[in-house]
């Protein structure tokens, strides 16, 4: 398992691995033999390799839902729910601002300046962005649109939803963690019956 050591360390640390974040690692994880090897190693740890429904991102899940696993999942679930609404609003805002017909998915590119310019020209979008930036998940203290947008995108990059290939160029690529997030939202909506689809726009997004 030495050849998979660094990859296992990343997965155990909670990384989400997709073509955008690491194409080589993603290719390795897409191999059936590698999946079997990794799951064999992880079994005593009560962990297993999991892929999103469309296999766009890999991450770790639990082999069996023991008491300890349930407690850990409950903690993770609580954190996800806290960030759920601002992330859902951001997804919707990007879709409307950039005139997209569908929700963001792994590999999509967002140009920061284009997003800022289109938001500046629409008072309704500006108000929504201002409210979103002030949410505790993003916690912006600025009233300047440009600063608010930069902070939002920086926070999303820190949480693994966006990748900035070049620090001196203001464009971002959506990672597979967005696909995971949308699956979580759909699960909560369908199984937990939480109000994440209060508006027609949110329902259409999902």
TrEMBL record:
InterPro entries in the record: MksE
Protein name per the record: DUF4194 domain-containing protein
Annotated organism of origin: Rheinheimera lutimaris
């Amino acid at each position: 398992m030495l050849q998979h050591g660094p990859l296992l360390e990343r997965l155990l640390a909670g990384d989400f691995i997709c073509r955008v974040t690491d194409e080589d690692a993603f290719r390795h994880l897409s191999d059936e033999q590698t999946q079997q090897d990794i799951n064999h190693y992880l079994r005593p740890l009560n962990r297993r390799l999991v892929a999103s429904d469309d296999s766009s991102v890999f991450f770790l899940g639990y082999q069996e839902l023991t008491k300890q696993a349930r407690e850990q999942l409950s903690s993770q679930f609580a954190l996800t729910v806290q960030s759920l609404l601002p992330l859902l609003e951001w997804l919707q805002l990007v879709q409307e601002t950039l005139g997209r017909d569908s929700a963001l998915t792994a590999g999509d590119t967002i140009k920061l300046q284009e997003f800022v310019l289109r938001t500046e020209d629409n008072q309704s979008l500006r108000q929504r962005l201002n409210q979103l930036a002030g949410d505790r998940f993003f916690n912006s203290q600025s009233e300047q649109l440009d600063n608010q947008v930069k902070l939002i995108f920086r926070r999303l990059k820190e949480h693994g939803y966006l990748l900035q290939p070049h620090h001196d160029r203001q464009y971002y690529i959506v990672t597979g963690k967005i696909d995971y997030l949308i699956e979580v939202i759909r699960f909560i909506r369908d199984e937990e019956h939480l109000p994440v689809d209060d508006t027609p726009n949110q329902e259409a997004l999902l």
